[in-house]
Known about the structure:
By secondary structure, the protein is an alpha/beta fold. The protein folds into 2 domains: 2-89, no CATH class; 130-284, Nucleotidyltransferase, domain 5. 45% of the residues lie in helices and 13% in strands. The chain has helices at residues 2-8, 15-22, 26-34, 39-57, 64-73, 80-89, 169-183, 197-200, 202-210, 227-239, 248-263, 277-284; strands spanning 130-140, 143-152, 157-164, 190-193, 214-217. The longest helix has 19 residues, at 39-57. 30% of the residues are buried. The mean pLDDT is 88.
Amino acid sequence: xxxxxxxxxxxxxxxxxxxxxxxxxxxxxxxxxxxxxxxxxxxxxxxxxxxxxxxxxxxxxxxxxxxxxxxxxxxxxxxxxxxxxxxxxxxxxxxxxxxxxxxxxxxxxxxxxxxxxxxxxxxxxxxxxxxxxxxxxxxxxxxxxxxxxxxxxxxxxxxxxxxxxxxxxxxxxxxxxxxxxxxxxxxxxxxxxxxxxxxxxxxxxxxxxxxxxxxxxxxxxxxxxxxxxxxxxxxxxxxxxxxxxxxxxxxxxxxxxxxxxxxxxxxxxxxxxxxxxxxxxxxxxx
Length: 286
């Protein structure tokens, strides 16, 4: 490890200085550089190439568990601890989300609310049995954009979404209409949301009633009642919204590409045993 560090920093520090600090000899370092790499070292070098490729393909968002799952799917059989160790040694780190946001839930006084029928049961036996919905914020240099999402708990697939500059009932109705168009659910679908004014509006509730939905709402101030959606938003912020977008148009394009091009179709989901939502639904039909 000491010689590896010296080799990586030869352009920054003198060999004499590093030898003294690390307690090794320069002759030992030169001998190390000249010897043939061991079979294990060569295998680690080859594995590191695959790790870097997987990391780049994931848009620098995968940590060691998903990198390991991805490599196994590609036919590389290696231990998860080995992957984690190589990633740590070479400073390959998944992106983290930034924290700063406006309020997205404002309960309307006197609004009719529904009980929490979902009751934190975030699994479903078949598609279009349970949908959850919520709103989040997207930062841009031109101001905030708001994103409404509808997710199917069976596969964690985002079945409907809409973006807009106003956090109103039109935003959630847009996501709902996309979900209906994409999935065409049957009567009896359980629809879960918070108690925000967008979801308790007369127009939105009438649309749910038209499909004979079972309406479920989180308890006031309890984010855990909609934990699956909170998890998706956290993933979105960590992997796509890592800093404010340069414009609202750029944000819309990036969110579209993330949801439809990456999250639904390619991203390995830990809840689904590391397959994508679309792949999970496809495999369940066969």
